[in-house]
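fyi for ur records
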Amino acid sequence: MLRACKTWSTPVVEEKRAAVPCDLCGSASFASSLACEGFSYVRCRRCSLTQVNPQPASESVARRYGDDYLAYEIANEESFLRLQLLGLSDAGFWRLERDLMARGRPPRVLDVGCATGALLERLRDRGWIVVGAEISPSARYARETRGLDVRGAALEDCAFPGGGFDAALASHLIEHLNRPRAFVREIMHVLAPGGHFLVTTPNIDGFQARLFGPKWRAAIFDHLYLFSKRTLRALLESEGFEVLGIRTWGGLAAGTAPSSLKTLADKAAKTLGIGDVMLVKARKPG
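which gave:
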């Protein structure tokens, strides 16, 4: 029997909220979407972006990521790093690395929402100049334990100069943000012409989301937006990015089905492009 499971999230609490227009298309017309335990999502009638609306204030969102979040990231950093490396490999990141290294200077990478800095440390060891941004106590942890340059602020508050990075990464971040469009716009600003942006997020059009509905593991209190391949592509392209490819993976989560069924579901979901998680590879023109 299939069983639904949720990923980790902060507890549902009462927060002051305000209605906002859809961050993708600007519409103010929404339909009910997912009714979860203690909170719910709506779907934009114009562009279909699924979102929490009314939205909590950004200050309330930031308070969710405290010491409990740091403990969660430390406990899971090895498995998270393994999944990130697999995703980057699937997206052709190491070919990009080879091409950038061939220019004769170390390439620069920005990891936004870098958590404990495990991925940045790995990239530093491979010859990259690495910088991170992280609003949680993980920023301090990454600086103190790994000696990394990680700014303890949201990307928009870091004031990075324009055109300073050859690549930008955002793994399981964009769904947590109040203003994903502003985030994508700032990524465009900090990337050098021809720079690459790799963004990983849950896929609301995936098999698991359709199977479990409001019990889907990514339909959690901390996720303010749930993107499909179409809505995330639309957001990136509307800010000037060229989308180079979209890969998905994950058919059934561990613990939701017998291992033999999970193996078959994972293979089918990846082949059909209906995986639970998607990675979009995009490029800044130039």
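Residues 67-90 form the longest helix (24 residues). thats all i got for now
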